[in-house]
Each structure stands twice: as C-alpha cells, then as structure tokens.
Design brief:
Largest sheet: 3 strands, antiparallel
Shape: globular
Radius of gyration: 14 Å
Distance between the termini: 28 Å
Strand order of the largest sheet: 1-2-5
Amino acid sequence: MSTPQIRVADAISRVPYAKFLGIRAELKGDELTLIMPFAPHLIGNPALPALHGGVVGALMEVTALTQLAIASKSERFPKTIDVNIEYLRSGRPVDTYARARIVKIGRRIAN
C-alpha cells in the first residue's frame, strides 16, 4: 500500500508543466499544500518584478487537479473544463503556496 505522500508526488509527476514550474507538495494530515519555489524564469513583468499570471493560474489548476485526484481515488486523472481567475494584484517574486478545497464530487463534474 502506498503512503499518501507518494500518491501526491505521483499525481504531480503526471503533469509535465508542474515539473517545469518546480512544484512540490506538503501533506499534513488531510491538508495538501503545493509549493512553487520562486525562479527567475517565472517572472512575467521584469519591471515590477511580478510572477507571470499564467504561472499563477497553472499553480492553482495543478493544485485543484491534484486534490481532486487524491480525493476521488480514481485511476484516471481528472480533466479541467473551465478555470476562471480574477487577478486583484501582481504576484510577488517569492515562493508561492496553494491549497484547494473540494466542495462536491459528482459522477462527471467536481467543484
């Protein structure tokens, strides 16, 4: 039987872009936190400097997919249908943390 930490690492390793971003996971109890360490190639606006919005969006999407993959206990990795993000301010050039909360898992759709 695999430990939850190994299952999380396996779920993240199935997303090639997550490897490019350097995303890693911390699992404490049932709480999953994904961490994206800062790297210069993640900067979108060097004048500020600010993280690229696509990088921040990708972190949030990978976090949601990973949490869903673990919670659903399915062999199939979930597909994203829609993601809607409203950026209220620039992302600072520091390590970034993300958590996801699953509201409902249905047969075909999860929130």
